[in-house]
Every structure is written in structure tokens, then in C-alpha cells.
Write a structure and sequence with these properties.
Blueprint: E1 3-8, E2 16-24, E3 27-36
Antiparallel strand pairs: 1-2, 2-3
């Protein structure tokens, strides 16, 4: 699976004016247009951290599963789009 994320920091810090998008294998899966991002860092929780998590809010709470683990092979951070499927040397 290939994940591509885009974070557009817009408007004032910690206001619902930023946009977060996520594509899974080239298909848009999340398009959150009212994200609150504290990019000022005044609270000590500024935009200096990034969390990759397998957490899913759609899990049926009646189903019990063992603890899962995720391994990410590559992480690329870019200010420009990178075409999908391009091998990194």
C-alpha cells in the first residue's frame, strides 16, 4: 500500500481553517477541510511532530483483536508532489 498525505496550513494557528488530505494507493481517502493545527507552538504542541498510526475509529468495539504492529519501509517528506510508484534510490 502507498499512502500520500497533504497538509495545507492556512489561516490562524489552532483554528479550523487548515486542510488535511490522505490518499491510499492513489485514491482520496480523507479530505478534512476544517483541521485545527497549532503551528505557532505557543502551547508546546506545535507542528514539530508527525504521527503515523494504524488507529481506526470504525472498529466494532464488540470484536476483540490482538495488538497489531505496523512497519513503514520509506518515509519521504517533500514540499512538492511525488508521483506514485517512483522507486527511491
Amino acid at each position: 500500500m502507498e499512502f500520500t498525505g497533504r497538509i495545507a496550513i492556512l489561516g490562524e494557528s489552532n483554528q479550523p481553517t487548515s486542510r488535511v488530505q490522505l490518499w491510499v494507493d492513489g485514491e482520496l481517502a480523507i479530505d478534512y477541510k476544517q483541521a485545527k493545527i497549532d503551528w505557532s507552538g505557543a502551547s508546546g504542541k506545535g507542528f514539530g511532530q508527525f504521527l503515523l498510526s494504524p488507529y481506526s475509529t470504525n472498529k466494532d468495539v464488540s470484536h476483540v483483536h490482538p495488538v497489531g504492529h505496523v512497519w513503514y519501509d520509506d518515509l519521504i517528506i517533500s514540499t512538492q508532489p511525488i508521483p506514485m510508484g517512483v522507486a527511491v534510490q
